[in-house]
Automatic annotation (TrEMBL), chains A, B:
It comes from the Bacteria. This is Alpha/beta hydrolase. It comes from Sinosporangium siamense. SUPFAM superfamilies: alpha/beta-Hydrolases. The lineage of its organism: Bacteria, Bacillati, Actinomycetota, Actinomycetes, Streptosporangiales.
């Protein structure tokens, strides 16, 4: 992990760009912290870190206000990272099906999502190795948003992730429903009730499939990009409940700070 | 409205019992308030105020901590109030169907719920008349919990209610789905995903039917009585957003206090 630039944002948050081998990433840490802080790994759609930066930095500032660090890495095939054989074909097939108003077949969804998950999850784990080796970051780790299938796989295979906020707004390969049953960490799932590109019933079925004892679905009105501000605040409360460190000699805080 | 007793709870909340004609009720007001406060009308299942008191007072304390008064009145046919012809028959029919594991027919649900709604809604409106005439209570009014069909009817017919938190955990007559389409105020709907006595799909259909532009569904794991503590905190945030008074000369607070 090599830091390539650093700046202080106006609210004191430290933003550092880094590369991890070939992979660019951004790490945000709170203005001041007296002890190693928890981390939220910020998922995002495969549109490139540059395009996603305004939304990522807003989420990172909110995390920092809660006392958490946040990190995001470029997804495989996004930004300047090389595409792989089949990715552009799957994207073209998806565009064609959606423009024709046809249902998007399982083969297209599998070709689009499964290789992305297979590549992105070990890279996310490598990023966790690197970021958690910094003295100012101690965990535990939450995963938030982005491609839901990446969140599902990470929740199953990565024990350092103790809670996940997922956005039920992407195509989900059928095999991921089986993986969803293996998830046991607390989940906070957002659903936009009128998401244009999303099958509401499939999202409800996926929520039902998760094996977690604590899982909450927050459904709000509006389309894919219309998540209301208060939904973000409820998600922040979820992470505060699950990531806040036990105080030395004090009971673990399970309530929110409201 | 005649006050019959008053006491200060340990957190300073003033609890006053009253009667409104034949109807007993309880009013809670915050320890101190410099201006007339908003009001939350606390709905509850038809088990009697006495039995419901521990849960009601907990909700009232939370409302008071947000700066809101809270009130509850005995439902028609509950506590010491007279039953009406058909009510006990409908309850017996319901018990029989549930014990036999049979589906509960529309006629039973209609006989159980529709007369209750027809009686309870004008009584709730009379209670609002009385409580809002007190100088220390100014509105706006939120409705919270209880029999969801009463909440639906009140949301349609009572303009002083500006926001409602509903619990999708009761039998809902088919005609109430039509009334649900006429609801336009902001809604916060709780659903227990594994509610034993509740049809999950019917609850989702009801949520879909509401005409409100702002409506949020919070689904949590567990049975009818297993609503997690953090769900109550999210509901408190909903009422804080919608009931908090505009400050003199200040912008209306639309954000939560977190």
């Amino acid at each position: 992990m090599r830091f390539t630039s650093e700046q202080r944002l106006d609210d004191g948050v430290l933003e550092r760009r880094f590369t991890l081998g070939e992979i660019p990433g951004i790490l945000w840490t709170p203005a001041s912290a007296s002890a190693p802080v928890p981390l939220i790994l910020l998922g995002h759609p495969p549109l490139g870190l540059h395009k996603m930066y305004p939304r990522l930095v807003a989420r990172a500032r909110r995390s920092a206000a809660e006392g958490f660090a946040a990190a995001a890495i470029e997804l495989p095939g996004s930004g300047d990272r090389p595409r792989w054989a089949g990715a552009e074909q799957a994207q073209a097939d998806l565009r064609r099906a959606m423009e024709a108003g046809e249902p998007v077949g399982d083969e297209i969804i599998d070709a689009l999502i499964l290789p992305l998950v297979d590549k992105a999850v070990p890279e996310s784990q490598a990023a966790l190795d690197a970021v958690l080796s910094l003295h100012e970051i101690g965990g535990p780790v939450g995963y938030s948003g982005g491609v839901i299938s990446i969140g599902i796989r990470l929740a199953v295979v990565e024990p350092r992730i103790v809670a996940a906020g997922l956005f039920a707004g992407s195509f989900v390969p059928r095999t991921m429903f089986e993986e969803a049953r293996k998830v046991t960490i607390p989940l906070h799932v957002l659903l936009q009730w009128d998401d244009e590109g999303n099958d509401r019933q499939a999202a409800l079925d996926l929520f039902d499939a998760f094996g977690s004892k604590e899982k909450t679905l927050h459904a709000n009105m509006g389309g894919h990009t219309g998540v209301p501000q208060f939904a973000g605040e409820d998600a922040a409360g979820f992470f505060a409940r699950h990531l806040r460190q036990p105080q030395a000699g004090a009971r673990r805080q399970t309530g929110s700070r409201r």
